[in-house]
Structure formats: C-alpha cells, structure tokens
C-alpha cells in the first residue's frame, strides 16, 4: 500500500506521447500531411525515432517509435509524459516517487530536458520532466543524478552536451521552430 504524501505537488501539463508503430513512413506522412505536424528531429536509420510537433512551444508532442516491442501487443504506448516548470518542481516528484520502494526510477537528461521515468503499479510507463536552457538534436539520453545540487546538475549536463550535434540555446531552437511552423500555417 502506498502511503499518502504530505507534499504539496506543483502543477504539471501533459506534454507528449510516444507510440510504437508498424510503418513509420506511413505514420509520419499521416501526421505531417493530414494533421500539420512537422518533423523536429529523427534518429538514424530505418528504425530511427521520429519527433513531431504542432506547437510552437514544444519540441515534440508525438514520438513515433518503429522499434518492435513486446509492449505493442498489449499497448501501442511506450510512455506518457508530463511537464513541470522547473527543477525544484521535478525534484518534488522525484522525492515522492523515490520514497516508494517498489518503484524503480530512471533519471536522465535528453540534453534539452531533465527527466524522471517510472512505471505505475500496473506497469504503465511515465515521464515527468522540465526543460533545460539548451537544445541538442534528438534522440539524446544519458543518466543524471538528481541528488546533485542544481548548480552541479546544470554544470554536468552542460559539459555533456556542449559538443553534441545541434547544440544551441533553447531560445534559438524555439525561434527556428516557430519560423518553420509559421511557414506551413495559414
């Protein structure tokens, strides 16, 4: 039994969903041609992830994952993601989840985010994240330690990504993404 928390939780918004897909080209065509999404990043090769967005504020709202998985037999969903405003808010969820011994946490950075991944009691996978001030090409993923101070976490992340492909300030990427979305809008 999970004990109730005494933590006052901050707001979080639904951010994105990652879907297992059988035919990534058909799915990409559907989302881009029929719903106006743009491809913001893609992994390498035929089984590379495809990141899609229709929002000027979000790098991705849908991720198409063409990698075969046992999960796609019962659910096409890899994970559901929630966004919080800052590291302090992310840490409050991290601390709460860390107190449940049955829950295994995966703490990572995607270069442009810091994230906590976990599974609920029925094995559904979730992510809670906050943005970093940077952007790097996706996919990108490396472990981070949320027990570090904010300053050390920021320094560690920046040292890992500053030489990665696509590295820039998030505001520069945002401006470029907004220009692309404006070019395809009415």
Residue share in helices?
Answer: 25-40%
Provide the gyration radius in Å. 17 Å
Task: State the CATH superfamily name.
Answer: 2,3-Dihydroxybiphenyl 1,2-Dioxygenase, domain 1
Please tell me the overall pLDDT: 87
* CATH-assigned fold name: 2,3-Dihydroxybiphenyl 1,2-Dioxygenase, domain 1
Counted by DSSP, the helix tally is: 4
* The CATH class: Alpha Beta
Strand order within the widest sheet? Answer: 2-3-4-1-5-8-7-6-10
Strand content: 25-35%
* Structure class: alpha+beta
Distance between the termini: 52 Å
Any overview of this molecule?
The protein is α+β, with helices and mostly antiparallel strands and 186 residues long. It is 27% helix and 28% strand. A hairpin with a 5-residue loop joins strand 7 (113-119) and strand 8 (125-131). The mean pLDDT is 87.
């Amino acid at each position: 039994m999970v004990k109730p928390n005494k933590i006052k939780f901050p707001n979080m918004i639904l951010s994105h969903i990652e879907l297992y897909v059988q035919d990534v080209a058909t799915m990409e065509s559907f989302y881009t041609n029929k719903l106006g999404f743009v491809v913001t990043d893609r992994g390498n090769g035929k089984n590379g992830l495809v990141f899609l967005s229709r929002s000027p504020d979000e790098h991705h709202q849908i991720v198409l994952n063409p990698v075969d998985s046992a999960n796609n037999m019962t659910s096409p969903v890899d994970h559901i993601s929630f966004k919080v405003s800052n590291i302090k808010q992310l840490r409050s969820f991290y601390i709460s989840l860390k107190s449940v011994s049955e829950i295994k946490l995966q703490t990572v950075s995607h270069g442009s985010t810091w994230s906590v991944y976990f599974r609920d009691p029925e094995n559904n996978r979730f992510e809670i994240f906050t943005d970093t001030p940077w952007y790097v090409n996706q996919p990108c993923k490396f472990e981070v330690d949320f027990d570090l101070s904010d300053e050390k976490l920021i320094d560690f992340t920046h040292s890992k990504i500053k030489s990665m492909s696509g590295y820039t300030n998030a505001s520069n990427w945002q401006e470029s993404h907004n220009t692309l979305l404006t070019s395809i809008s009415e």
